[in-house]
Design brief:
9 helices; 25% helix; disordered N terminus
Length: 314
């Protein structure tokens, strides 16, 4: 067990400054994308590793079986409907409708998702790509209800994790398991390929207790229209569609977002964020207190020791 730093005096060098009165800008990434050693056995095909390094994301089909997906769906429904979880303050609801938008810390409150977070198909791959022991920086269920599910605006996770959580370097990634079919129509994840190779400096100041508003609708820590246009022109936009049981892996710095869902078909995914143990969070790179533990693991960081990773088919 390791305890992360929390005082500003312990803060490391800020290699990726953003907000704080700075002008919008696009900077070169200073960190690798894949940290694995060249002679290390890969849990996935080398062509997939190269694709991840180049594009910043992968979509792997059929990673989890129908039986596993059924168990994940049942647990997801249970958590979303649990009155105690809804009242915990760690569940985010939609503006207007009050529908559940996100349930956080699912690896800690659910035995099913705790087991999933340690699964060799996820934790083992994260450990390989990040070249280090890993721990869970954040976990959540994202729901986008039919008819009224709101959008998640374009952003880089790392920009927020760096500024508001104190994550020093780009040595983290997200893994999203698709629980209900993600189609063109129900607000699937959208990504800008190759945008992970640049760091987009965002404008504005970080408001007090920003997390309370940003988890419902993010207005700070988002790229300018001009920066987004440049990134999209260079990389295009990819829609991550998939059947239940598919997995999306994406680098912590890739620009991504999703449209609102006005279709009748809800969308739900479970996200596990892995961070390298050597990259554990310190003091935030802003003048605000750290975000709560349910959003960012800080007080108790436990490394995961996965079983030997299984080979996944391309």
């Amino acid at each position: 067990m390791r305890t992360a730093y929390t005082s500003t005096s312990d803060r490391t060098e800020d290699r990726y400054p953003s907000r704080g009165g700075r002008s919008a800008a696009i900077r070169e990434r200073q960190d690798p994308v894949v940290y694995a050693k060249k002679d290390e056995d890969s849990p996935i095909a080398p062509t997939l590793v190269r694709r991840y390094k180049k594009l910043g994301f992968l979509l792997l089909k059929g990673v989890f079986s129908a039986e596993e997906v059924t168990a994940f769906q049942a647990e997801s429904d249970r958590l979303r409907r649990d009155p105690g979880i809804q009242a915990s303050g760690e569940t985010i609801t939609e503006l207007g409708s009050g529908d559940v938008r996100s349930v956080f810390k699912v690896h800690a409150i659910s035995p099913v998702f705790s087991k999933l977070a340690s699964d060799t198909r996820m934790a083992g791959m994260a450990q390989y790509l990040l070249g280090d022991q890993v721990y869970i920086h954040q976990s959540r269920l994202n729901y986008k209800s039919g008819f009224r599910g709101k959008e998640f605006y374009w952003h880089s996770d790392f920009e927020t994790w760096h500024v508001e959580d104190g994550m020093p370097r780009m040595r983290a990634l997200s893994m999203s398991i698709i629980l209900t079919e993600n189609t063109d129509n129900n607000g699937p994840l959208m990504l800008i390929p190759r945008s992970h190779k640049h760091y987009v400096v965002c404008e504005g100041e970080t408001p007090e207790n920003h997390f309370k508003a940003s988890l419902k609708k993010q207005e700070y820590g988002v790229p300018s229209d001009d920066c987004l246009s440049q990134m999209a022109k260079a990389g295009g936009i990819v829609v991550a569609k998939g059947k239940p049981g598919s997995m999306i892996i994406f680098d912590c710095n890739i620009l991504h977002g999703s449209n609102g869902n006005i279709s009748p078909y809800p969308r739900s995914n479970v996200f596990i964020v892995y961070n390298a143990l050597s990259n554990r969070v310190g003091a935030p790179f802003c003048d605000k207190p750290p975000r709560p533990e349910y959003i960012c693991s800080r007080a108790c960081i436990e490394p995961i020791t996965p079983l030997k990773p299984e080979k996944l088919n391309e």
